[in-house]
Design brief:
The protein folds into 2 domains: about 5-205, Cytochrome Bc1 Complex, Chain A, domain 1 (2-Layer Sandwich), CATH 3.30.830.10; about 225-404, Metalloenzyme, LuxS/M16 peptidase-like (Cytochrome Bc1 Complex, Chain A, domain 1). Helix content is about 45%, strand content about 20%. By secondary structure, it is an alpha+beta fold. Strands 1-2-6-3-5-4 form a 6-stranded mixed sheet, sandwiched between helices. Strands 7-11-8-10-9 form a 5-stranded mixed sheet, sandwiched between helices. Helix 10 (about 270-280) runs antiparallel to helix 11 (about 310-325). Belongs to the peptidase M16 family.
Length: about 400
Amino acid sequence: MEFITYTLPNGIRCILKQVKSAVVHCALTVNTGSRDELPGEYGMAHLVEHTLFKGTQRRKAWQVNCRLENMGGELNAYTTKEETVVHATTLRGDYAKAVELIADIVFRSTFPEHEVEKEKNVIFDEINLYKDSPTDRIYDEFEDRIFDGSSLGHNILGSKATLRRMHSEDIRRFVARTYTTDQMVFSLIGNLSEKAFRTVADRWFGGIPASQRAFGRTVHPAPEPFCHSVGRGTHQVHCMKGKRAYDLKDDRRLPLMLLMNTLGGPSANSLLNVLLREKNALSYSVEATYTPFTDSGVASIYFSCEKENASRCIELMDRQLGELAEHVLSPRRLSVAKRQFLGQLAISAENNESYMLGAAKSYLVFGDVDGFGEAKEKIEALDGETLRTVAEEIFTGMSALIYK
C-alpha cells in the first residue's frame, strides 16, 4: 500500500507515505483560501497565514520562529485560492517537535494586535513587489476578469485599504468560521512506522474539538469572451489568453493537463516554445497552464515579447491552437507527449515535500490518492480524439488581456 490513511474522531484526516530518508516532511492542509473570504475580508486568508507565526498561548513569535530552525529544520506556510498549508521539514529525530509546533500555531495562535499591525506592513511590501512584476500581476488580473463576480475572482493578497481595516478579532472570527476539523488533512512523508504516525497524530491533533463547516462554495457563470488592453508602461508587451476550464473532478481534467503540457509546459520542445522562441526568436518567455479548482478551473497561455512582435506572436499562437482543435495529434506525437508527461510526474515525485503536499490536496478533495501506477494507466489510455475534442472546447472563444 503506497499510502496509509485514517481519520481522527474529530474529522481530521491523516495520510502517511513511508520512505527511507533521514528527513521528514509534514503538513496540515486546511481547505480554506481566498475564495472563502466574505466581502470586506479580501486578503484575510493570507493575513491569517502570516499571523499564525506571531505567537500562541504557549510561545512568543520568536519562539515559534526558532523552534525548528535552531535544529536545522524549516517551518513555512502558503495560501492559495482554496487552501492554506502549514508545513515543516526536519531530521527524522525531530519530527514530533514539528508536528506539535504545527498544531500549536494552527489551533492556539493568539494573533496579538501589535503583531498583526506589523505584519500588515510586510504584506504591503509584498503587494508593492507584486505590482512591480507584470508577469505575476497579469495572471491575477486575468483570473479576476475570468471569475468576475465569483469568490474566485479576487486577488489573494487583498488591497492595502481592506487590510488596514482588519484587526485581531476579525482574524479570530475568520479562523473560527473556516478552520473546521472536517476540512483538514494532516500529511507526513518519511521513515516512520504506522504506529509512530498514529501516535503523534492522535497526541497533537486528536484532542482538538470537532467542528464542521457551515457554508458552501459557489461559482458564477463565465463572462462573455473579452479582449482588454491595459497601459502599464512596461518595456515589453505581456499577453494572456485563456478560458474557464474543468474542475478537479471532471474526467476531462487529465487530457487537458496533457494537452497544456504539450502546448506550453516546462520542456524546451513544447509546441509554443519551439514556435515562438526556437523557430522565430520572438519571445523569451511563453507558457501554458491549467489550474483546476473544486468547482471550476482556468486554462491560460502567457507570453511576453517586444511590442513590435506582439501581433505576430498572437497570430502564430492562434494558428497553433487552431491546429490542435482541428487535427488529431499523430500517434508519434501523442506517444512522445505521454512519455514526457509521465517522466515529469515521476521526477516531481522524487521531491518528497512536493509529493506529500500534492497527496494531501488529493486526499482532501477526493478522499483518495492515485499512486504513480494508477496515474500512468489513465494517461496511457488517453487517445488523440479525446485531446482534440478538449482542445476544440477550450481553445475556442478564449479571452485575452494585454499589458502594453
